[in-house]
Design goal:
By secondary structure, the chain is α+β, with helices and mostly antiparallel strands. It is 26% helix and 44% strand.
């Protein structure tokens, strides 16, 4: 008897697995019927991480020094110092420059030689009293090392708003004023900091006008229109069905500053040949985005005749003892009860009668089993003998039937989880799709007049990491 129970449980387990993953149209006795794999879509969220293109921006910020140098060519204006007690002119030569990223910011760094002239008001006019490094970049010139730090915010639409500051400016080479024998490098650092602070807002505006992330998001949007093959053997396709885009803040991607965009979608799973999907254009970016996670639900339907046959194969033949005799299941038939499952069981042995069983299916995630809550039954045939048996055995029989209506599905759900995670973790043309399946469960199991319907649900996350942000308007 123990061996028979094991076999019966395996069959019942297989029956539920078939409900979740099999193609009813390809099953025995249903060849040629229309595929009944139905989809049920839910509002889902996908996060796009798009790196901010930095090359053009870095050229703007490193170009500040070239622009300031050109402004200081003759005729040059004297820069007042100390309320007019002294005046300075400076000259800078080309030097080293580059950029890096740190903490989601663009760090533009430059180092270059400089020379200065120093004047004082004497007898009603300015008189140059000292200079250093004026002849060329090597003859007594000083040297400055500068870092500009640029942080980013998301602008309207798909724009980026940079905001820069002087992170560091240090003299790394002396410039000794003639006749004064004073190193002008610290003074030059103060003067040049003020010059940079004056021109940085204009540089930020120029950099913002050079960069938009719309082309990159547009390419990803187009990719998300295409069906994604989840399982080649089962011909399962994921349709993401993106609907809208919203700003989702700034962060980093592979240590690069990146903008996040949230895509609201209504994903669905379909089966068969690759479906044809619509390709709506990229919409305007909304100001806000709420991440509700990524969810996919889809429904499988099995014709009621086939479902009954599989049920009988799974449960008929099970037997057990109630202490006063043995009960054996001789027949089983499903019947509709809305969101409950009804099973008509023919019992033999101690109780040769027919029960109409009902219960509400639910999935228990910790144990990985389908359970039936609120299980009860009624006796179809009413006789003095069945009434007596009902009086003495109703609760023990109900509890035994409830205990037996437990279906372990952990192993198959874990296999499905792995298949789904493999399907949503892949390289795409413009980046990398990364997904997680945090929960995978049976959402609903109902018996209808002509079919048995099982709805399967996954909850998790889905994000797209773009290779680069692209350029242009």
């Amino acid at each position: 008897m123990a061996k028979r129970n094991v076999v019966s449980h395996v069959k019942l387990f297989s029956f539920v697995v078939i409900l979740l993953v099999a193609d009813p149209g390809a099953s025995t006795g249903t060849a040629g019927k229309k595929d009944s794999h139905q989809s049920r879509d839910e509002v889902s969220s996908i996060t796009l991480h798009v790196p901010i293109p930095l090359q053009a921006m870095s050229e703007v910020y490193n170009g500040i020094h070239r622009d300031l140098a050109s402004q200081q060519t003759a005729p040059r204006e004297w820069i007042p110092l100390g309320g007019g007690t002294g005046f300075l002119k400076y000259r800078i030569w080309p030097g080293d420059q580059g950029f890096k990223t740190a903490g989601g910011r663009l760090i533009s760094h430059s180092a270059f030689p400089f020379g200065v002239e120093y004047a004082k008001p004497l007898n009603g006019s300015l008189t140059k009293v000292a200079e250093c490094g004026q002849s060329d970049a090597t003859a007594g010139a000083g040297r400055l090392a500068i870092q500009l730090a640029t942080a980013f915010a998301q602008g309207p639409g798909y724009g980026v708003i940079p905001k820069s500051r002087v992170a560091a400016i240090e003299p790394v080479g002396s410039c000794v004023l003639s006749s004064q024998h004073v190193d002008a490098a610290p003074l030059m650092a103060q003067v040049y900091r003020s010059e940079l602070q004056r021109v940085l807002p204009a540089a930020d505006r120029k950099a913002a006008g050079l960069v938009t992330l719309k082309p990159a998001v547009g390419r990803i949007w187009k990719e998300l229109q295409e069906p994604i093959l989840l399982d080649e053997a089962e011909s399962l396709w994921l349709l993401v069905n993106p609907a809208s885009v919203g700003s989702a803040g700034l962060g980093t991607l592979s240590e690069m500053p990146a903008a996040a965009f949230g895509v609201t979608a209504r994903p669905t799973v379909v089966r068969g040949t690759k479906p044809v999907s619509p390709h709506p254009p990229l919409p305007d970016a909304q100001a806000r985005f709420h991440d509700d996670g990524f969810h996919v639900s889809f429904t499988l339907q099995v014709p009621i005749e086939e479902a009954n046959q599989r049920l009988r194969e799974a449960v008929v033949g099970q037997e057990w003892s109630l202490g006063v005799g043995t009960i054996k299941i001789a027949g089983a038939t499903l019947y509709p009860l809305g969101h409950q499952v009804g099973v008509e069981l023919a019992l033999r042995g101690l109780l040769p009668l027919t029960l109409r069983l009902k219960g509400t299916p639910s999935y228990n995630e910790p144990t990985g089993r389908i359970l039936f809550r609120e299980v009860d039954y009624s006796i179809k045939e009413r006789t003095p003998a069945t009434d007596l048996a009902e009086e003495w055995l109703h609760e023990p029989l109900r509890e035994e039937l409830a205990r037996r209506l437990v279906v372990p599905v952990r192993e198959e759900l874990d296999l499905m989880r792995k298949a789904l995670e493999k399907g949503v973790n892949r390289d795409m043309t413009s980046g990398r799709l990364r997904g997680t399946v945090q929960q995978l469960s049976l959402k609903d199991l109902t018996v209808q007049t002509d079919s048995l319907s099982a709805t399967f649900k996954t909850d998790g996350t889905l994000l797209y990491e773009a290779h680069d942000g692209g350029m242009g308007q």
